[in-house]
């Protein structure tokens, strides 16, 4: 949508939530193509477009509500933000219905409203499509899956990670190398769609087995939430699994 359309939509939502309208001057990098992920500027303050729909950072208080049951006002706002997605809401319920994937949990109401794709299944598919599109545009439809171990340079900390990258491990982990020595276990290249699905299966299995681990320096690193701990037997099985699936 263009800037005028975005302002109109935001004003309609703000009128439902707040007594006082936003008085900030709004601008964007591309005023003719504002998406939910676009950065906008409010009197010099930067904010994501989807966050601004729920309140101006300068004019309205931004609260992290933990409410999870649909209220009348929430349903009105949800229809204005996500109406094109066909979601169905019931007052007093902690669930909503995705037309493609059935009942879903609302969780935090504000997070639901600010999400690009609130349905977890829809969101997973969106991220998959985005990654594959990026691979097709910039890497001939290919990507790399890596399985590496990390050892701290200053302590006894060690852990593992499985992930994707388009370039080398050195480029992927340039910010990590200050704190950790990295040892490749598997590094393989293949079709982006197949490799992406393989990585997602592995991450799901790690969560199911409750192996996830947060590194001591996690706040510095993208992808730190995908790290894990495992026995030598588990590591060897995972190594063989990835090799068999990518060769």
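^ structure tokens above, recovered residues below v
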């Amino acid at each position: 949508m263009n800037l005028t359309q975005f302002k109109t939509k935001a004003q309609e939502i703000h009128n439902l939530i707040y007594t006082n309208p936003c008085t900030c001057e709004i601008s964007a990098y591309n005023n003719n193509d504002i998406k939910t992920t676009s950065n906008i500027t409010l009197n010099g303050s930067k904010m994501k477009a989807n966050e601004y729909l729920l309140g101006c950072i300068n004019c309205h208080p931004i609260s992290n509500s933990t409410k999870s049951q649909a209220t009348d006002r929430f349903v009105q706002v949800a229809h204005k933000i996500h109406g094109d997605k066909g979601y169905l809401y019931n007052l007093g319920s902690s669930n909503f219905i995705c037309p493609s994937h059935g009942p879903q949990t609302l969780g935090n109401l504000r997070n639901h409203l600010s999400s690009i794709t609130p349905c977890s299944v829809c969101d997973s598919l969106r991220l998959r499509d985005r990654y594959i599109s990026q691979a097709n545009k910039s890497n001939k439809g290919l990507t790399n899956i890596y399985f590496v171990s990390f050892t701290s340079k200053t302590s006894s900390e060690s852990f593992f990670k499985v992930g994707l990258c388009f370039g080398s491990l050195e480029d992927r982990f340039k910010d990590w190398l200050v704190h950790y020595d990295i040892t490749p276990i598997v590094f393989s290249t293949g079709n982006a769609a197949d490799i992406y699905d393989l990585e997602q299966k592995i991450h799901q299995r790690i969560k199911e087995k409750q192996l996830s681990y947060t590194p001591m320096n996690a706040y510095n690193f993208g992808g730190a939430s995908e790290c894990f701990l495992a026995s030598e037997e588990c590591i060897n099985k995972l190594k063989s699994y990835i090799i068999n699936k990518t060769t």
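The longest helix spans residues 120-138.
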